[in-house]
Specification:
Elements (H helix, E strand, L loop, with lengths): L1 H5 L4 E3 L10 H28 L6 H30 L3 E3 H34 L4 H4 L2 H19 L1 H7 L16 H5 L7 H34 L4 H9 L2 H23 L5 H26 L1 H15 L1
Antiparallel strand pairs: 1-2
Protein name: Olfactory receptor
GO cellular component, one term: membrane
Membrane topology: Multi-pass membrane protein
């Protein structure tokens, strides 16, 4: 026991929804449907962008990056979430939990960076349309994708090591059906100031700055749109941004909610923590492909043509 107090447990125990354990098998069905929608719809968009020449444009390249991050996020969480709810298999090895934590936070940061890149795409398309093709070249888009990916992995690389250095002896029971850094560090029986400060630094310097620059890009977009004389042209320009705005809201609102609950809702009921975390986990991957398919006629037509060729 003394050794356990200064090291870490061999495994963690994941948690579904406290107080509703008897309903977990019934909740597994909707969860499977949400995973199927997230994985299936995003894969369809990836395939459509790959095979349809009409979608070989900067906006759709960024959309394919967004779909890839959503697929990766879903794949990172699917094994533990479904095991917990379908089979009540709650145990996850310590190192496997670290890997899942790193992947979840990394793909989440990638999605934030991609949404920022998409806002830049909309800014150039509306505010400087004559230079759109010369600014957003394939090389530039690939460079932005690499930069977003590198930022995520480099920034979050220390997280597993910051957790591994902590003696975890308060408990080995996590609050969710997957592993998150704030959840894991709270189980330590040592000073977690470094973890807390680094987590806040990452949150502000990446997600916070991304959101700030997205906001500023739309301030400039609105200023440019208001200078357009024709009311119809204004609406047409703004309509090209609706899908991106909805995707930003679908991502940042749940993320801000779960961050707020983790940091300031210590006395909130546990089901509030679980609900916010699951909304943060499931909403963006499920809604993003539906939003873009519903609001972008080029994507709808490309998907229709793709399925028609498969049928033939």
């Amino acid at each position: 026991m003394a050794l356990f107090n200064v090291t870490h447990p061999a495994s963690f125990l994941l948690t579904g929804i406290p107080g509703l354990e008897s309903l977990h098998p019934w909740l597994a069905g909707p969860l499977c449907v949400m995973y199927a929608v997230a994985l299936g719809a995003n894969t369809v968009i990836l395939q459509a962008v790959r095979v349809e020449p009409i979608l070989h444009a900067p906006m759709y390249y960024f959309l394919s990056m967004l779909s890839f991050s959503d697929v990766a996020m879903s794949m990172a969480t699917l094994p533990t979430v479904l095991r917990t709810f379908c089979f009540d298999a709650r145990s996850i090895a310590f190192d496997a939990c670290l890997v899942q934590m790193f992947l979840i936070h990394s793909f989440s940061m990638m999605e934030s960076g991609i949404l920022l890149a998409m806002s830049f795409d909309r800014y150039v398309a509306i505010c400087n349309p004559l230079h759109y093709a010369t600014v957003l070249t394939n090389e530039f888009i690939a460079g932005m994708g690499l930069a977003v990916t590198a930022r995520s992995f480099i920034t979050l690389f220390p997280l597993p090591f910051l957790i591994k250095r902590l003696p975890i002896c308060k408990s080995n029971v996590l609050s969710h059906s997957y592993c998150l850094h704030p959840d894991m560090m709270k189980l330590a029986c040592a000073d977690i100031t470094i973890n807390s400060i680094y987590g806040l630094f990452v949150l502000v310097s990446t997600f916070g700055m991304d959101l700030l620059f997205i906001f500023l890009s739309y301030v400039l977009i609105l200023r440019s749109v208001m200078a357009i004389a024709s009311h119809e042209e204004r609406l047409k320009a703004l309509n090209t941004c609706v899908s991106h705005i909805l995707a930003v809201l679908a991502f940042y609102v749940p993320m801000i909610g779960v961050s707020t609950v983790h940091r300031f809702g210590k006395h909130a009921p546990r089901y509030i923590h679980v609900l916010m975390s699951n909304v943060y986990l499931f909403v963006p991957p499920v809604l993003n492909p539906l939003i873009y398919s519903a609001k972008t006629k080029e994507i709808r037509r490309a998907i229709f043509r793709m399925f028609r060729r498969i049928k033939l």
